[in-house]
Write a structure and sequence with these properties.
Beta-lactamase; eight-stranded antiparallel β-barrel; seven-stranded antiparallel sheet; 19 helices; disordered N terminus
Length: 663
């Protein structure tokens, strides 16, 4: 079976190479519909099969026109309704954020907002001014729009399981305020909350709900008539909604409608054609493609004599239909933050990338059931949008974009003639300065979600040849140095930058809002899991010894009851907590296949957290008992030593609970 699967992957890879390596064409070749259809048919048909996706849709725009669009597979498997880029509704996920940033820039150009003013000026509540008890610089809209505000990440209740659990935006931003963990402007850490907070500022300063503001000032002017932030969907939209699916045990499982609590950051419902209208507005630097007011004015100009007054009216009409002024759109698309001059960074809301020497601005979107990709090349006036009605994350869309760029925008002859810097090994003897365990800056550091950092580590090592090896999510990539603190992938185009502190690598910077931070040795998954395993094993063996001792005749000795009672209580409580957390993780939502605790309040989690507090208290009580035993010489020397080791085990468990904030 494994050989068959490997053979299938090899065949798919060869077919993809065939589609990409057909005679190369430049952007002018994009006007050939047949050629475009052959390319997209080849890639997307393979992807639906490879990633087990029921349906997908794509659209390509150039010079204010949709030059290709097509649906693949089914929007509704059960009823055999095909995917249609014009009519099939889907959830663009985080591509909803583009509307938030557009709204902010609209108010900036009107003078209502300023990008560098403390956001507390605009809010009806206060963002704490301190980080770890120390005063920190204020957060600005510039920080929010570049994902450098310094908030930790939160996942719980970002989505909710039913509409009854939805709360007004004004309530959500106040009750779900994450901790500030980085200095503003120092680290890129992607933040759904930061986007939602910016949308709330739009609400407060415009006097409209964000949903109404977006509809009036963005969706309607762009002609995005099939787009809405409403949850649940209006009846007029429901019939066109594509189903979302996940694939488990050889079958597709249909999900339900996704309710996004942080709705400006990811709750838009739209079609592929509507989303490319948004792309074209960016390519046109704020001017919508459909300009009915301008066309009417032009018709009036042909029917009437030209006059200065008529020209003024035409200019007014042009101004009214813009969603952004040209300079504002250019500012929005210019780089605003990067970890290194050679690493693509962030504009105001868009993620930069470099493909074959071409600058691409992009954003991805992932919900529980949909994955989308939005891309455009400002200099070439080309844009691409794709949706999959299954959560395949970045894998599929990145594959499609790379194939598209290799096919239609390969490296120029001049770029190919340039000899790139050859990646070289690091200096011998410095290996220990690089190796270590890292965690994403987009993590939780102060709540129960901290435990997720243990499940998503990145490992940096140095191989025998002196090249850096980065392993994450089951994949290892090799990098060589091409400039001070700049490294190039050996078998790929990716560049990374590295930051040092006191001779050690402390941060690894990837393109876009992706930074990884060195984990302290006592905070690494290896240390924590080993400490837990050893502590639990020692306590379990001790419990067995105590149980066996109950049924064996004992010589007369000093009583040793209280310490044993504390030890038994701690161990039984630890087992109970472990069972509760196992139940929390294994109880999944039938529609979405993720732990229900992520989507709705959990009494089991609340009970488990109460018990972990009791565990922490018991560990402290055991420590006091241990000190008392040593001071009064209670029990035999062997009993005291054994209880000291048991207490150390309980304190180790308490330390782990403290580190991952499970209390």
């Amino acid at each position: 079976m494994g050989a068959v699967q490997r053979g299938r992957h090899i065949l798919i890879a060869l077919l993809l190479v065939f589609f990409v390596m057909m005679p190369q064409v430049q952007a002018a070749g994009l006007e050939s519909p047949d050629e475009l259809e052959a390319f997209f048919d080849g890639v997307l048909t393979l992807q639906l099969r490879e990633y087990n996706v029921p349906g997908a849709a794509v659209a390509l725009v150039k010079d204010n026109e949709i030059i290709f669009s097509k649906g693949y597979g089914f929007a509704d498997l059960e009823n055999r309704i095909p995917m249609d880029p014009e009519t099939s509704l889907h959830r663009p996920g985080s591509n909803s954020k583009i509307l938030v940033w557009t709204a902010v820039m609209q108010l900036v150009e009107q003078g209502v907002l300023d990008l560098y003013t403390d956001i507390n000026t605009y809010l009806d509540f206060s963002i704490p001014s301190k980080i770890d008890g120390r005063e920190a610089p204020p957060i600005t809209l510039h920080h929010l729009m570049t994902h450098t505000a310094g908030f930790e990440d939160e996942v719980i209740e970002l989505f909710v399981s039913k509409p009854e659990l939805m709360h007004p935006l004004s309530e959500y931003v106040k009750t779900h305020l994450p901790a500030r963990v980085f200095q503003p402007g120092s680290v890129m850490a992607y933040s759904n909350y930061g986007t939602t907070l910016a949308a709330y500022i739009v609400e407060l300063q415009s006097g409209q709900s964000f949903s109404d503001y977006a509809r009036q000032h963005i969706l309607i002017p762009l002609g995005m008539d099939s787009s809405t932030f409403e949850q649940p969907l209006p009846a007029s939209f429901s019939a066109q909604m594509s189903q979302g699916y996940r694939y488990e045990n050889g079958r597709f499982i249909r999900g339900g409608f996704e309710y996004v609590q942080s709705y400006p950051a990811g709750a838009l419902t739209s079609t592929v054609h509507d989303m490319v209208l948004l792309i074209m507005a960016q390519l046109n630097r704020g001017m919508p493609v459909q300009l009915p007011a301008a066309e009417d004015a032009e018709a009036e100009g042909e029917a009437a004599p030209e006059s200065a007054e008529g020209e003024g009216e035409t200019e007014a009409a042009d101004t009214e239909v813009r969603i952004l002024q040209e300079k504002t759109a250019e500012l929005m698309q210019s780089q605003q933050f990067a970890a290194h001059p050679e690493i693509p960074g962030m504009t105001y809301g868009f993620i930069e990338a470099n493909y074959n020497g071409h600058r691409v601005l992009s954003h991805g979107g992932d919900t529980l059931l949909f994955s989308t990709g939005l891309y455009f090349l400002p200099e070439e006036n080309v844009g691409l949008y794709v949706v999959y009605n299954s959560s395949v994350t970045d894998r599929a869309r990145a594959w499609l974009l790379q194939a598209f760029m290799d096919r239609y925008f390969p490296r120029s002859e001049l770029e190919q003639s340039l000899v790139p810097s050859e990646p070289r090994p690091i200096t011998a003897g410095t290996e220990s300065n690089y190796t270590g365990t890292f965690h994403s800056s987009r993590s939780n550091f102060t709540g129960v979600e901290s435990v997720l950092r243990l499940a998503q580590p990145m490992y940096l090592s140095v191989d025998d040849e002196g090249y850096l090896n980065i392993t994450a999510y089951g994949k290892t990539s090799r990098y060589g140095e091409i400039a001070p603190n700049l490294f190039q992938e050996l078998n790929g185009p990716e560049k990374i930058a590295i930051s040092f502190d006191e001779g050690k690598v402390t941060r690894i910077h990837f393109a876009g809002p992706s930074t990884w931070l060195r984990s302290a040795w006592y905070d690494s998954p290896g240390f924590i899991t080993t400490l837990l395993a050893v502590s639990f094993l020692f306590m379990a063996v001790t419990m067995l010894g105590w149980i066996r001792g109950v049924f064996q005749p004992q010589p007369r000795r000093r009583p040793f009851v209280a310490p044993k009672v504390l030890g038994v209580l701690f161990f039984l409580l630890l087992i109970t907590v472990a069972v509760l957390f196992a139940d929390i993780i294994s109880t999944t939502h039938p529609d979405f296949g993720i732990p229900t605790v992520v989507l709705e309040p959990s009494s089991t989690l609340n009970a488990a957290l109460i018990l972990t507090k009791i565990l922490m208290g018991l560990a402290g009580l055991m420590l006091l008992t241990c000190v008392y035993m040593l001071a009064t010489a209670k029990g035999s020397r062997r009993q005291r030593l054994h209880f000291i080791l048991f207490t150390l085990s309980s304190l180790s468990v308490a330390f782990v609970l403290y580190q991952i904030h499970l209390f």
